[in-house]
Amino acid sequence: MHRDHELIGGQDSPDTESLLSEDLHPSEKLLLRPELSARSRRNRHVKTWLHAVAIAWYTAMTIALYTWSIRLRAAHKCACETGMISSPAQKAVEYETLTITHNLDNSTSKYRGEPSPTIDAAWDELLQYNNIRVSSAELLAANLTSVALHDTPSGDSHLVTLDVYHTLHCVNRARKALYPAYYTSPNRPEVDRAHVEHCLDLLRQVLMCHGDVAMHTYQWRDDVRVPWPTFATTHQCTRWDRIVDWSRGRSVESLEGSILQHPTLGVSYPVDEKRRAQGNEE
Fold first, then answer.
1. What's the predicted TM-score (pTM) here?
2. pLDDT score, position 134
3. What is the mean pLDDT of residues 130-149?
4. Helices 14-23 & 26-75, crossing angle to 10 degrees?
5. Quick check: is 167 in a domain?
6. Number of domains into which the chain is organized
7. Which of 9, 28, 261, 281 is geometrically suited to a Cys-Cys bond with 24, CB 3.0 to 4.6 A?
C-alpha cells in the first residue's frame, strides 16, 4: 500500500527517515538506501567541517590571548627590568629577595662601629671598583659624554662611575664625619661640611627616586609603650655580587699619571695639597 508522508520544511529528519524505513516494503527500502547513505555522508562532512572550524577558532583565540598576556606583562614591567635608563651594566642586573637587618647595636655589620683599620679596609673593598671604563658607543646609547682615559691604543675609553658606587662613597663620607678626631682632614671646615651636606641630600634624592615600597613592621615590647620597629625588612634587591663582577672587568686601577689629563691644566692625579685644601678633590 502506497502512503504519502508530509515532510516538515521539505526535509527528512532522522526520525522521519526511520519511520519511512519501517513502513516501506523491502524492495522499496533498497531503492531508498542510496539516497539515505548520500544524505548521511553529507551530514558527516558538515559535522567534520564544523569541528575543524571550531578547532581553528579556539586555536586562534588561544594564540591571541597568549600574545596579549605577554604584551600586558611587558607593559607593566618596572623600569629596572625594561631598562629606561641605558647602561652597559644593565646586562649584569639580577634580582633576589633579601631580608635586611638593621639593629641598633654594632655587632651585625662590618661597615659600622668605632673607627678602625678593619672597618676602613671593609669600606675600601666595597668601593674598590668605583672607577670603570666604557666605550664611546655605550655613552652614546645613554646620550652622555665623559672624559677620556689615555691608556688604550684605540683611545675609545672613558671614565664613569656607576651611581651605586657614588652613593656608597657618600655614605662613607657621612660615616667619617661622625668621627672628625679620627678622620682628620686637610680641607677647610666649611669645605668638609659642604661635602657632607651634599652627600646627605644626594642620599635623600636617591632614596626618593627608588621609592622602595617594602613594608616595615612593628611589634610590642614589654618595656616600651610605643610600637617598636622589627629592624628586619624584606626587599627586592639587585644582586650585589653581579654588579661587583661586572665592575671588576671594567675597573680602572689607578687614575694617577698620564691616564687622566685635563685639556689645559695637565695631569689630574695625584692632587697637590694646595688644591686639596681648596676642596678640589673627592
1. 0.68
2. 96
3. 95
4. 170
5. yes
6. 1
7. 28
